[in-house]
Structure formats: structure tokens, C-alpha cells
UniProtKB/TrEMBL annotation, chain A:
<keyword id="KW-1003">Cell membrane</keyword>
<dbReference type="GO" id="GO:0043190">
    <property type="term" value="C:ATP-binding cassette (ABC) transporter complex"/>
</dbReference>
<keyword id="KW-0812">Transmembrane</keyword>
<dbReference type="Pfam" id="PF02361">
    <property type="entry name" value="CbiQ"/>
</dbReference>
<protein>
    <submittedName>
        <fullName>Cobalt/nickel transport system permease protein</fullName>
    </submittedName>
</protein>
<keyword id="KW-0472">Membrane</keyword>
<dbReference type="InterPro" id="IPR003339">
    <property type="entry name" value="ABC/ECF_trnsptr_transmembrane"/>
</dbReference>
<feature type="transmembrane region" description="Helical">
    <location>
        <begin position="73"/>
        <end position="90"/>
    </location>
</feature>
<dbReference type="InterPro" id="IPR012809">
    <property type="entry name" value="ECF_CbiQ"/>
</dbReference>
From TrEMBL, chain B:
<keyword id="KW-0067">ATP-binding</keyword>
<dbReference type="GO" id="GO:0016887">
    <property type="term" value="F:ATP hydrolysis activity"/>
</dbReference>
<comment type="function">
    <text>Probably part of an ABC transporter complex. Responsible for energy coupling to the transport system.</text>
</comment>
<comment type="similarity">
    <text>Belongs to the ABC transporter superfamily.</text>
</comment>
<dbReference type="GO" id="GO:0042626">
    <property type="term" value="F:ATPase-coupled transmembrane transporter activity"/>
</dbReference>
<keyword id="KW-0547">Nucleotide-binding</keyword>
<dbReference type="InterPro" id="IPR027417">
    <property type="entry name" value="P-loop_NTPase"/>
</dbReference>
<keyword id="KW-1278">Translocase</keyword>
<dbReference type="InterPro" id="IPR017871">
    <property type="entry name" value="ABC_transporter-like_CS"/>
</dbReference>
Length: 251, 247
């Protein structure tokens, strides 16, 4: 096995969660997110319940809390936005620590923060226990439009290649004395971006030729098929099912 | 003629849609099991010719036949099974997330599944010495390793003829020698497009010189490369300090 080379979101392991077929996990996370989003924001206990559920999944999957926390950085822009709402919000106001805040704004901020955080944790757990290419196999199994799956697959394969190309272009620029210091240099960067786009487009054409040469006819062949048993489905769907039960109790 | 040739090209001419004529009547045939080098300077039409061999371009005039099957719209699927094209940049050829998936792509398109597919993939990777890398993403391999995997991707389709576009480009000396050893060990017809003349001499008994869109010379590699005037007339030359070794 090719050890040591993993996607940075993936945490290699052999837990029950790791072994579940990707289509089960994908559907479970999606259903869980729907339940979370559908929960009225006043039901604090329900959100606490969901958090406990995710904690349980993390424990079973042996994903350390610090690992999840670091990868939640993606949520930061939403957090900043959420903190701004009560300050700029309208309507009835209240004073917290000397700050005049909007009450509807506070509710909206809580709503965004709670739901986004739960959704991001669920996604991070999915990514930590499922390799990206395996997630795509799951997407294929769930009959997502094959064109979308193929685009995602190529992105996964060629992102590093394109980033490399971008780095080489930057080195070439800087070797000739260019340094991006202020706005006046934007045209140079823009031209580089254009060149990168054309290079990538041409690569796309060559890749297409290579695919045609090996018998591609518009459909990705199914090379590795992962089928799921009824037990695996019920294990995965236990997460949204329990979440739904929590919601029922809280209502 | 008694036996069927692996590749038979007759009077092939082609002009690009913009009117540039690239091929002016190419004639060549390659017997089964032969390893032939196609030499020529940049712009001689080598790549255009290669694109005709598996029907990516279709002949403007003349014909191409692989193991007796003419390259036509209705035979494309079969032709692409039989002609294994190895592109110059392995990043163009290796488009799947892992080495294993990539090697499986061709045979899976041909309908292989399950254990049989697995066996074909393992066998192809084994023949290029890359079996251990099966589960790695292509991006994490060295350039030489990627080129070897690219060869495996077409070997897995059990082609009648292997067509390599500049196989030695960008390889360091050791990777170049390793690839040569692999190519020599394969029992398959090979057409190697290159301007690396020593590599042609090392691997191919026979060479063709494509120049100005026609086959300008066809003969034993050793004799062609010894003919300095012939080489010079077609913008080919041996590297500095290189002499054709005595037999």
C-alpha cells in the first residue's frame, strides 16, 4: 500500500466508521444536515443532543478533537459574519457587556453558528474517515450526475499539477525581478492567470485525447465497485435517525 | 505478402483544417514483433502521423490499417484497443486518482470487471516494475515512474502495437536505461517516435526518417545513423562525441 501519501483531510484508520461504504456515509451526513437545519433555533437541547451524537461518532472513528478543531478553520468567515449580525441588526435591542445588540440579530447569529458548526463537524468527520476518491465512488453509487462526479475527479487529480504550474510561473516571474508589492502589479498577475487558464485548457484537450485512446465513450467505467449491505446502511443511517428522534423529543 | 502486418500505412496525406499540409503521402509497414524508430526533426509531421494511427485524426487521403483492420469510424473502438499510444507527458496520460484505477481504465472500458480486471492490471504493472505503486496517486511518483505507469496503462489493453511519443524525453540517465530495459523485455510491436538517435540505435533495429511529410529513408538504424549526409539533410544529428559503436 502507498503509505504516507494521504490527502490532508484524511486520517488513515480502520474503525467501523472508516470501513463503512462511502455512499452510506454521504447519505447519512446529508440527512443529518437536513435534520439540523430543520430544527427551530429555540430548541437548545436538540443542538446539544446533535453535538453529543457527533462526539460519539468521533470517538468510534478515533478522530481526536484537536484534529477536528484545526480543520474547522474553514468556518471562520461565517463566524465573523455571525458576530457582525447582532451589531448591525435592527429591531429590539439589549445590552451585553456594555454593547447594544439587536435581539433578532443575536438569534440569527446563534442560528447560523450552531447549524454551521454542526454541519462542518459532520463534514470534517466524513472527510477524516473517507478518502476523497472513495467519496467520489460513493457519489457515483448514489447516481449523482456522472459529469459532476467526473469533474470533481479531475479536479482531485489535477489540482496539484496546476498548483505546481502556478508555482513555476511565479518562480519565472520573480527570477526576472518581479515582486508583487501593490495594485499596479495586478495586470501582470492577471496575465499569468490567463496563461494558466490556457495551459490548463490545453492540458484538458490532451487528457481527453488520452482518454479517447483508451476507449472512453462519455461514461467513466466502474472500476472499483463498493456495495453496501443492509447492516452497513442501517449503521450509517443510525446517525440521522437518532438526530431525528432528538428533534422529535425537543419539539 | 503472406503475413499480416501490425501496421500498414499507405499514401497517407493530411492537411489541418487551417490548410497547413502536414503529411504528403506516407508509406510504411511494420511487421509483427518489430521495434521501429520513427525519426524526424520537430515539425516533420511525426505527431500528426501518430494521431492517425488510432483514429484521433482521420486520413485526408490514403489509408491506415492495424493488423489488417482499416482505421475507420466504424472500427475506432477496435483500433483503439489495438494501438497503445503513450503520450509524451505522463500527466496527460495518467488522469485517474490512483495508479491502479488508471491502468484499469482501458480494460474496464473494454468491459473487463472483477478478478479478471484485477489480474490484467497487476500483470501490466508487474511488467513495468511498478506493482508496489498500485495504490499511490500518480502525482506522488517520480517522472520516470510515471512514464513507466503510462506504458502499463496501454500494456493492460494488450495492444497489437505500442506507439511511444518521445519516450526518453525528460528522463534522467538511470530512468532512461530502466525504460529501455522494460521496452526490450516486452514482446510487442513497437513504434517509437523520437529524435533521440542513440536511444533509437539502442532499441530499434530499423528506423524510418519522416521529413517534410514523407518517409525520406527506411533501413537499418545503424546504417541510417552512419550516413552523416542523410542525417544533415533532415535536420538530424548525433550528439556531440557520439560515434556508432562497432558491432
Amino acid at each position: 500500500m502507498g503509505a504516507g501519501h494521504h490527502h490532508r483531510l484524511y486520517l488513515p484508520g480502520d474503525s467501523v466508521v472508516h470501513r463503512l461504504p462511502p455512499q452510506c456515509k454521504l447519505l447519512a451526513v446529508l440527512a443529518f444536515a437536513v435534520v439540523v437545519v430543520a430544527t427551530p433555533r429555540e430548541r437548545f437541547w436538540a443542538f446539544a443532543g446533535y453535538a453529543v451524537l457527533l462526539l460519539a461518532v468521533a470517538v468510534v472513528a478515533r478522530v481526536p478533537p484537536g484534529y477536528v478543531a484545526r480543520r474547522m478553520a474553514i468556518e471562520l468567515p461565517f463566524v465573523v459574519f455571525a458576530f457582525l449580525i447582532p451589531i448591525i441588526g435592527m429591531g429590539e435591542r439589549t445590552t451585553v457587556l456594555g454593547l447594544s445588540l439587536s435581539v433578532p440579530g443575536l438569534w440569527a447569529a446563534w442560528n447560523i453558528l450552531a447549524k454551521a458548526t454542526l454541519g462542518v463537524i459532520a463534514s470534517v468527520l466524513l472527510a477524516a474517515t473517507t478518502e476523497p476518491r472513495v467519496i467520489l465512488i460513493g457519489a457515483q453509487r448514489l447516481r449523482l450526475p456522472s459529469l459532476l462526479v467526473q469533474i470533481a475527479m479531475f479536479m482531485l487529480r489535477y489540482l496539484d499539477v496546476i498548483v505546481d504550474e502556478m508555482r513555476r510561473m511565479r518562480v519565472a516571474r520573480e527570477s526576472r525581478g518581479f515582486a508583487a508589492r501593490d495594485f499596479r502589479q495586478i495586470p501582470v498577475i492577471a496575465r499569468s492567470a490567463g496563461a494558466l487558464f490556457i495551459r490548463s485548457y490545453e492540458r484538458g484537450e490532451r487528457v481527453h485525447l488520452a482518454m479517447l485512446s483508451r476507449g472512453y465513450s462519455g461514461q467513466m467505467p466502474i472500476i472499483q465497485d463498493i456495495s453496501a449491505s443492509a447492516r452497513q446502511w442501517s449503521a450509517a443511517l443510525a446517525l440521522p435517525a437518532v438526530a431525528l428522534a432528538v428533534l422529535g423529543l425537543a419539539l | 505478402m503472406t503475413s499480416v502486418h501490425s501496421l500498414e500505412v499507405k499514401q497517407l496525406a493530411y492537411a489541418y483544417p487551417d490548410g497547413t499540409q502536414a503529411l504528403f503521402g506516407v508509406d510504411l509497414s511494420i511487421a509483427r514483433g518489430e521495434r521501429v524508430a520513427l525519426l524526424g526533426p520537430n515539425g516533420a509531421g511525426k505527431t500528426t502521423l501518430v494521431m492517425h494511427l488510432n483514429g484521433i485524426l482521420t486520413a485526408g487521403h490514403g489509408s491506415v490499417a492495424v493488423a489488417g483492420t482499416p482505421v475507420r469510424k466504424d472500427t475506432l473502438k477496435e483500433i483503439r484497443q489495438r494501438v497503445g499510444l503513450v503520450f509524451q507527458d505522463p500527466d496527460d496520460q495518467l488522469f485517474m486518482p490512483t495508479v491502479r484505477d488508471d491502468v484499469a481504465f482501458g480494460p474496464a472500458n473494454a468491459g473487463l470487471r472483477g478478478e479478471e480486471l484485477d489480474r490484467v492490471v497487476k500483470d501490466a504493472l508487474d511488467r513495468v516494475g511498478m506493482l508496489e505503486a498500485a495504490d499511490r496517486p500518480p502525482h506522488h511518483l517520480s517522472f520516470g515512474q510515471r512514464r513507466r505507469v503510462a506504458v502499463a496503462t496501454v500494456l493492460a489493453m494488450a495492444p497489437e502495437i505500442l506507439v511511444l511519443d518521445e519516450p526518453s524525453s525528460n528522463l534522467d540517465p538511470a530512468a532512461r536505461r530502466e525504460l529501455a530495459e522494460i521496452l526490450r523485455s516486452l514482446e510487442v510491436t513497437v513504434l517509437m517516435v523520437t529524435h533521440d538517435l542513440p536511444y533509437a540505435l539502442e532499441l530499434c533495429e530499423r528506423s524510418l526518417i519522416l521529413s517534410g511529410g514523407v518517409i525520406a529513408a527506411d533501413g537499418p538504424t545503424r546504417e541510417l545513423l552512419a550516413d552523416t549526409e542523410l542525417l544533415a539533410a533532415h535536420r538530424l544529428e548525433l550528439p556531440y562525441g557520439f560515434a556508432i559503436p562497432a558491432v
